[in-house]
Amino acid sequence: xxxxxxxxxxxxxxxxxxxxxxxxxxxxxxxxxxxxxxxxxxxxxxxxxxxxxxxxxxxxxxxxxxxxxxxxxxxxxxxxxxxxxxxxxxxxxxxxxxxxxxxxxxxxxxxxxxxxxxxxxxxxxxxxxxxxxxxxxxxxxxxxxxxxxxxxxxxxxxxxxxxxxxxxxxxxxxxxxxxxxxxxxxxxxxxxxxxxxxxxxxxxxxxxxxxxxxxxxxxxxxxxxxxxxxxxxxxxxxxxxxxxxxxxxxxxxxxxxxxxxxxxxxxxxxxxxxxxxxxxxxxxxxxxxxxxxxxxxxxxxxxxxxxxxxxxxxxxxxxxxxxxxxxxxxxxxxxxxxxxxxxxxxxxxxxxxxxxxxxxxxxxxxxxxxxxxxxxxxxxxxxxxxxxxxxxxxxxxxxxxxxxxxxxxxxxxxxxxxxxxxxxxxxxxx
Length: 430
Hints:
The protein is α/β, with parallel strands linked by helices. The chain has 2 domains: 47-78 and 375-427, Immunoglobulin-like; 83-372, TIM Barrel. It has 11 helices and 16 strands. The chain has helices at residues 38-53, 97-104, 118-121, 131-142, 169-187, 205-210, 214-225, 250-262, 285-296, 315-328, 360-372; strands spanning 54-62, 73-81, 85-89, 109-112, 146-154, 193-198, 231-236, 271-275, 278-279, 302-309, 332-337, 377-380, 386-392, 394-401, 408-415, 422-427. The chain has an 8-stranded parallel beta barrel with strand order 3-4-5-6-7-8-10-11, surrounded by 6 helices. α8 (250-262) links the parallel β7 and β8 (271-275). α10 packs parallel to α11 (360-372). The protein is globular. It starts with 37 loop residues before the first helix and ends with a strand. Keywords: Carbohydrate metabolism, Hydrolase, Polysaccharide degradation. Residues 70-368 form the GH10 domain. GO terms for molecular function: endo-1,4-beta-xylanase activity. This is GH10 domain-containing protein.
C-alpha cells in the first residue's frame, strides 16, 4: 500500500500521476483521495495527542477498613513531564549567564551544535581537545538536562576535519577507529543517544573509502563502546520535510536502516530514527504525517532532531504546525529544535534576540512547553471516594487529606503510556 498527503495551492481540476522506475508493470487496484478541512485536521491531531500523550487516571481514597471516603481533598503536583523537548546549544552558553538561564528554564534535552563533532575535538591529527564539550556537558548535568551525542561521524565529505579528507586508506582507518573510541568512550553513559553516522543517505564519504558496510561497522562499534541505554540514531534530512528528495524518501530510509540492523547486535535493539526536520517556508504537513506513519512501521523510537523553519512572514506559525504534528504522532518520542544561539545569528532560525527576549518563534515554543507540561490538578472525591483526571504522561506527587484527619497522605505516581486507565488506591487511616 502507498500512502501520502498533499496540500493543494489552489482549487480546480487536477490529475494524479503515478510514476515508477520498476522493471515490472504496476497496476493501481484502488485509489482513495480524501479531502479535509483545517478544523478536521486539527481535531484529529487533538485526538492523537490525547491518545499518545495523556491518560485517564482514577484515584480512590478509602479508610483503614476499605470504605470509600467522600469529600477528600486531592491535589496532584507535577514533578516531571515524560516527553523530552530540547534545543541545540552553542559554546556561548558557557560564558553567558542570560543564555544559561533562558535555556535551563525551558529545555530537558541539549544537542551541542558543533562542539562534539570531529572537526571540533581533533582539529589536527592526534591533537584532541574536549575542553569545550566537557564544560558544556558539566553545564547540562548541573541543570538536569539530558544530552544527545552529535555526532560521531558525518558522511558529508566537506564536513570532515581538513586533515582527514585526503588520508590514504590505512591512515584513515586508524584515524576513524581512534575517533569512535575516543568520543564514544568519553561520553558513554552520559548521553541519551548518538548520531553515529550523520546523513548517510545523502552522502557516502566513509562508504566510498571503506566499502558499502562502513556505517554498519560504525554502529556496531558504537554499541560495544556504549553498551548502556543510549539510542543509536540514523540521522537524516528531508525524509519528512521534502517529498521530492528521492535520496531520503521514507522507504529508502527504512531500507538503509534494515541494512544496519541486519548486522547490528541484538537484532537492532537500541536503534532509533533521527529526522532532522529542516523545513522550508511552507511545510507540507500532510506529507510529514504520512512519512511518520511509514517510518513508525519500523517499531523503534522516532525523534525529530534538528527542527527549524526557513525565515519568512509565517515562520512562527509554520514552526508551531511542525511541532504540533510531531508531538501528536505516537511514534515520536522526542523533539530537538535547531536554534543554537550565537552573537552573529543562528543557523536558520533563532528563538530569541541577542538579549534573550523571545522572538515570535520563541513565543511559540514557550506556549507549547506550557501546554505540554504536566500541570497541577486539584479537586475532591465523590461519594464512592473517586477523583478522576486526564493527565499528561509524567510523574506526579499526589496529596490527599480529609476533614476527619489532621494530616495528609502523599505518594508519587507515574502516569505512562498503556491501555485503559490507571487506578490508584489511597488508604487514609480514619
